[in-house]
């Protein structure tokens, strides 16, 4: 009798598991429906999160390669020259990636950069 009882108990447990699985399947199908309905709202929310992420902008005036000995000799008034001409455009980087070119402008007592060209990949993102 104990074997028969164990078998019946096992069948009861198996039936309960199956009924739970059926409930889960129904819930999952309802979740899928609600997910697809909320997808446009969710996309908008994700865009807001992405658009609010900070970006480090770096403007490169030029570069120079010097020896450590020359670096250690720097003092107030020291000068070194960059690899770019006065009229060459500045490189504009976003998080280390080149995104545009620009030129220096002055506004009252501050410097600014006027964008003169943007990489094509940024133009397609903007649209």
From TrEMBL:
- GO CC terms of this entry: bacterial-type flagellum basal body; plasma membrane
InterPro entries attached here? FliN-like_C, FliN/MopA/SpaO, FliN_T3SS_HrcQb, SpoA-like_sf
Just give the chief location class. Answer: membrane
Which keywords fit this entry according to its UniProt record?
Cell membrane, Cell projection, Chemotaxis, Cilium, Flagellar rotation, Flagellum, Membrane
Q: Which Gene3D superfamilies match?
A: SpoA-like (2.30.330.10)
Give the membrane topology.
Answer: Peripheral membrane protein
Q: Does the keyword Protease apply?
A: no
Q: Which residues form the Flagellar motor switch protein FliN-like C-terminal domain?
A: 50-118
- Compartments it resides in: Cell membrane
GO annotation terms (biological process): bacterial-type flagellum-dependent cell motility; chemotaxis
What family is reported? Belongs to the FliN/MopA/SpaO family.
> This chain belongs to which protein, by name?
Flagellar motor switch protein FliN
């Amino acid at each position: 009798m104990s074997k028969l009882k164990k078998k019946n108990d096992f069948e009861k447990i198996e039936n309960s598991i199956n009924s739970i699985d059926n409930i889960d399947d129904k819930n999952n199908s309802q979740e899928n429906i609600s997910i697809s309905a909320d997808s446009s709202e969710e996309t908008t929310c994700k865009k807001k999160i992405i658009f609010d992420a900070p970006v480090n902008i770096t403007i490169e005036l030029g570069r120079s390669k010097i020896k450590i000995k020359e670096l250690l000799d720097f003092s107030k008034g020291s000068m070194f020259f960059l690899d770019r001409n006065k009229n060459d455009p500045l490189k504009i980087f976003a998080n280390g990636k080149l995104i545009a070119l620009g030129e220096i402008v002055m506004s009252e007592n501050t410097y600014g950069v006027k964008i003169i060209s943007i990489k094509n990949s940024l133009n397609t993102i903007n649209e």
